[in-house]
Amino acid sequence: MNVVNLLKNPNVQQNALELLFPIIGFVFFDWSFLVIILFYLTDQLGVEIAYLMRLKFVEKIFLPIKKWLFPIAIVSSVTFFVVEFLWIERLFLTEKFDCSTNYFWLEMQQFLKQEFLFFLPVLVYMNYFKDKMTFYKSKLPYENSPERMLAFQITIYLARLTCVGLVVLLWYIFKWSDLAFVFIIPVLKLIFDAWLMPWGKINLFKGI
């Protein structure tokens, strides 16, 4: 695969942008480690919206529709997202982080006002565009059931909470600079995505 074809790959495009956004934010807009974490939470929100869209699409294929499944998916999505956010908040408000409650929520408010409303639609579109090229046009929607998708997504939630905990724990223990985490977080995310894609398609989507 040459460079041009590689750059046309939706997964490569999305990962490249997710790598660039925090670096640009850190260099040009003075993003802190907390803001970078909030950016990736926004990215995760976009992923959740795209996942629910995929689930709804697959649900229509496997008729009759189970009325309980989609509400459970929404509840589990919201629950894990809130738990993830509260976990990060609690860790940032520990004494070792030297982060006051006022500072945390002030950064949060500024991010919501300045970056969130811009990034959320961009990230939702990026995830939808990737799915449009790699999921909706493939055989995957016809090779897995909504139940398997939900089970797989819950597995992702647990793995994601572990990764988030690992990132914050590294900073908690070593107190590395924000610049180090500008690169550490995207690398961990790329590793997670690289593990996630083939594992999901083989083990749960195809039921092997």
From TrEMBL:
<protein>
    <submittedName>
        <fullName>Uncharacterized protein</fullName>
    </submittedName>
</protein>
<feature type="transmembrane region" description="Helical">
    <location>
        <begin position="20"/>
        <end position="47"/>
    </location>
</feature>
<feature type="transmembrane region" description="Helical">
    <location>
        <begin position="150"/>
        <end position="173"/>
    </location>
</feature>
<keyword id="KW-0472">Membrane</keyword>
<keyword id="KW-0812">Transmembrane</keyword>
<keyword id="KW-1133">Transmembrane helix</keyword>
<feature type="transmembrane region" description="Helical">
    <location>
        <begin position="179"/>
        <end position="196"/>
    </location>
</feature>
<feature type="transmembrane region" description="Helical">
    <location>
        <begin position="68"/>
        <end position="88"/>
    </location>
</feature>
